[in-house]
Amino acid sequence: MSVKFEKETIRETAIPGGRRHDIAHEVGKKLTGGKSQTGGYLGAYLQELQSNPLRTKMLTSGSLSALQEVLASWIARDRSKNGYYINSRVPKMAVYGAFISAPLGHFLISILQRLFAGRTSLRAKILQILVSNLIIAPIQNTVYLSSMAVIAGARTYHQVRATVKAGFMPVMKVSWVTSPLALAFAQKFLPEHTWVPFFNIIAFVIGTYINAHTKKKRLDALRKKASR
């Protein structure tokens, strides 16, 4: 009697999403450093933030401010005369972010941190949030609105003052909602030298939304005017 053994063929089955998983894994390793590196891009950025804090904050804020303008233009479909989303406001926003917003934030947050250095009680944290919202936020928002007025074409004191007067309370209301949450999160989870970049990211998200909303309103007004 003869017995035949059939050969079994084993096929490798591809894991669904395997390539995407590999790409995401590699990106994660580059950003955080994984187990085999010394910190990746994030670690290098944090190290640079500690060794050259103001310069790093200036580069970060300038880049985010320019990107905010491009992204808001894309969301609102606001193209320049040449048909591009990159307009003359982009380099102006970069200058504002690097040379006005970042140094001002660095200076004000440094004062806030020194005032409450070593004070970790709940009362101290609440007081820090109040000082941030009632003193620091108004200063930053006034400078922001004044700068935006100049970038938009305001050339006299009265034009800048009118822009600040019209936009101050709406911007402050947004700050009073988001700032306490952002500061409470920073107090709990972030080292102090990362506070300014973290607040820059929060401002980037909010600023992009407000900028895009403003652009859409302006474009709608222009379309209604043209249709008359």
Structure, described:
The protein has 228 residues and is mostly helical. 77% of the residues lie in helices and 0% in strands. It is built from 7 helices and no strands. Helix 6 crosses helix 7. It is globular, with a radius of gyration of 25 Å.
Helix content: over 70%
* Structural shape: globular
Radius of gyration: 25 Å
Quote the distance from N terminus to C terminus: 98 Å
Q: Identify low-pLDDT runs.
A: 1-13
* Helix count, DSSP H or I runs of 4 or more residues: 7
Sheet with the most strands?
Answer: none
Into which percentage range does the β-strand content fall?
A: under 5%
Q: Write down how many β-strands occur, each being a DSSP E stretch of 2 or more residues.
A: 0
Secondary-structure-based class equals mainly alpha
Concise synopsis of the structure shown:
With 228 residues, this protein is mostly helical. It is built from 7 helices and no strands.
List the keywords.
228 residues; mainly alpha
Helix and strand layout, with pairings?
Elements: H1 18-32, H2 40-51, H3 53-76, H4 89-115, H5 122-152, H6 157-189, H7 195-227
